[in-house]
Inverse folding.
């Protein structure tokens, strides 16, 4: 049985509007602007964009650059790879004549770090903070009977108020400015996710918000649809579709509550025989019998509950088996790469993981779509990595990032925890009031998911734990601390975890632990950087986690890292960070096989994964 409760009718056109992913439909057209753009470094003011655009590069100074992609690894010079500051992109395009009379929107999936966008020589849009989408209506700027030119100034400059932070250093001698960053991954820049032109009707669906709860076998779905372009009542139909796109029920209200008995719940990978089940909410607008607009939003029915000792989904305890990751690959840097993300998620399932953290920034929407459909739980993290020197400008950008990640990912069943920062200087007294405001802001947006920070500080000096729901910490005993001393791992991991729980009486999870390993380096006995050492190192951590799990409040382990990744030049980094259990080319080290044995066994032990018996036949020594 399905019950619909009708709520009051409202139409709201937000000032900033929604950020729904562009989808082709009966009422909406798409035009991808991905491809080969023209590109130039901006050095010593070679392009003036202080008041409009002037002094544009000549043809001889323009190079070809793929979009989406980071720009750094495409050219062959260190000047391009290490460029710090603005760069220039341009391209021309035409629109179909059928677009006349429609609203036209321009959407960027991400630009790192900031963007100023010009269309037909008019400044139309600016955005700060990478890894998040932004858009604007461009109808009035588009020429529908001739070519249009688009120019984008992308700036990789990081400061004391950006998210993340950074600074500039002037080299002695030549005076060249280089970037200094407090984080251990390469600061790739560019237009690194899709650029899309799309249309909507004049009256259009602007945003959809869906929340769900579970009562017994009944799924409770609350939804709100916001419209743009009208304040008058229009005809509406809202239809829930199952996974096979079969209509379940329809409503004529833009706000409502639907109760679905015997609902197919959204479950994480290996917690159920049908994981990642997605419904769809199809919204249609009508003028009489004429269809004005339609948009379909996927969602999963699930409920999260947490207390002082546990985190549950649909009433079942969750133990996180996961990774810290990076969007990082050869040549493309952080550019969207569909073959790569499919390979990554095949490996995630091969290894038996059920989760990962989007360390240390929001990942591409195409990645998040896969997580939704595959049942992979996400700890969704904003780009607030290694923050210090807390100030009002930084806070403003931090709150903006939280709002934007919420608006983008609020309907995703895979997103089960919001990570509001990674390794901040939470020992600083000023961090307390700062993170009080950050946590309060996120809870003003969403109370259906818990909050966390991935901590590096010891719990006795941290000022932020009281504002969180889940306590996560990163630990590198026998690597950065006591390098090579694997005997120190079990007591130190136990001490740290117990100290966090004792201080705040909340569930605890490890979000990073790992050892750099050069693929193919073998030593007997094991020694740091060898594959044998990584295996011995991980086995000691596993023992520590098993002991902590018996305490009843330890809820997960995420290894650092899924794959090797690029970093800034450092004397202790040989071609990047090598803590991956896979190489940067996504091939397994010995540790991947050990972790596979671990994760599949945990899935069998804790979640009753029936696939384990078949998988176990391939394991030796379990």
């Amino acid at each position: 049985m399905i019950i619909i409760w009708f709520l009051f009718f409202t139409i709201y056109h937000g000032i900033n509007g929604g950020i729904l992913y562009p989808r082709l439909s009966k009422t909406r057209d798409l035009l991808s602007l991905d491809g080969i753009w023209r590109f130039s470094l901006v050095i010593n003011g070679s392009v003036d964009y202080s008041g409009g655009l002037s002094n544009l590069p000549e043809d001889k100074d323009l190079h070809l650059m793929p979009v989406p992609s980071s720009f750094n690894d495409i050219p062959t010079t260190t000047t391009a790879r290490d460029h710090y500051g603005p760069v220039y992109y341009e391209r021309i395009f035409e629109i179909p004549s059928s677009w006349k009379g429609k609203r036209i929107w321009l959407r960027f999936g991400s630009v790192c770090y900031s963007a100023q966008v010009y269309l037909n020589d008019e400044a139309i849009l600016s955005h700060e903070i990478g890894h998040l989408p932004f858009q604007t209506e461009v109808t009035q700027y588009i020429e529908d009977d001739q070519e249009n030119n688009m120019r984008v100034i992308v700036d990789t400059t990081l400061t004391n108020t950006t998210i993340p932070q950074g600074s500039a250093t002037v080299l002695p001698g030549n005076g060249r400015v280089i970037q200094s960053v407090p984080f251990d991954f390469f600061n790739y820049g560019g237009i690194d996710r899709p650029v899309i032109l799309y249309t909507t009707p004049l009256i259009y669906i602007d945003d959809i918000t869906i929340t769900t709860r579970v009562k017994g076998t009944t799924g409770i779905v609350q939804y709100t649809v916001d419209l743009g372009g009208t304040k008058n009542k229009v005809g509406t139909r809202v239809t829930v579709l199952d996974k096979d796109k079969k209509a379940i029920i329809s409503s004529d209200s833009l706000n409502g509550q639907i109760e679905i008995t015997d609902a197919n719940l959204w479950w994480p990978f290996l917690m159920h025989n049908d994981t990642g089940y997605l419904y769809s909410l199809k919204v249609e607008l009508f003028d009489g019998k004429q269809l004005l607009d339609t948009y379909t939003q996927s969602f999963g029915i699930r409920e999260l509950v947490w207390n002082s000792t546990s985190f549950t989904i649909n009433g079942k305890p969750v133990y996180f088996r996961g990774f810290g990751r990076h969007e990082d690959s050869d040549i493309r840097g952080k550019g969207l790469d569909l073959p790569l993300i499919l390979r990554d998620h095949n490996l995630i399932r091969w290894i038996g993981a059920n989760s990962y953290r989007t360390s240390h920034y929001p990942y591409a929407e195409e990645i998040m779509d896969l997580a939704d459909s595959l049942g992979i739980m996400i700890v969704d993290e904003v780009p607030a990595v290694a923050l210090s020197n807390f100030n009002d400008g930084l806070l403003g950008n931090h709150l903006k990032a939280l709002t934007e990640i919420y608006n983008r990912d609020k309907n995703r069943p895979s997103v089960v925890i919001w990570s509001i920062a990674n390794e901040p200087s939470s020992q600083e007294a000023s961090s307390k009031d700062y993170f009080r405001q950050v946590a309060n802001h996120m809870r003003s947006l969403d109370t259906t998911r818990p909050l966390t920070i991935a901590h590096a500080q010891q719990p006795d000096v941290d000022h932020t734990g009281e504002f969180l729901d889940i306590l996560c910490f990163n630990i590198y005993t026998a690597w950065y601390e006591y390098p090579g001393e694997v005997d120190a791992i079990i007591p130190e991991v136990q001490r740290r975890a117990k100290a966090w729980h004792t201080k705040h009486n909340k569930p605890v999870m490890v979000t990073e632990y790992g050892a750099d390993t050069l693929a193919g380096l073998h030593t007997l006995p094991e020694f740091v950087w060898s594959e044998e050492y990584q295996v011995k190192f991980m086995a000691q951590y596993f023992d520590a986690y098993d002991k902590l799990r018996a305490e009843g409040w330890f809820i997960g382990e995420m290894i650092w890292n899924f794959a090797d990744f690029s970093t800034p030049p450092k004397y202790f980094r040989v071609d990047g960070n090598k803590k991956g259990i896979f190489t940067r080319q996504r091939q397994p080290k010995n540790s991947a096989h050990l972790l596979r044995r671990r994760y599949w066994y945990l899935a069998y032990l804790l979640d009753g994964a029936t696939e384990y018996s078949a998988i176990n036949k391939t394991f030796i020594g379990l």
Summary: The chain has nine helices and 33 strands. The longest strand covers residues 204-215. The chain has three domains: 2-17+202-299, 30-200, 315-616.
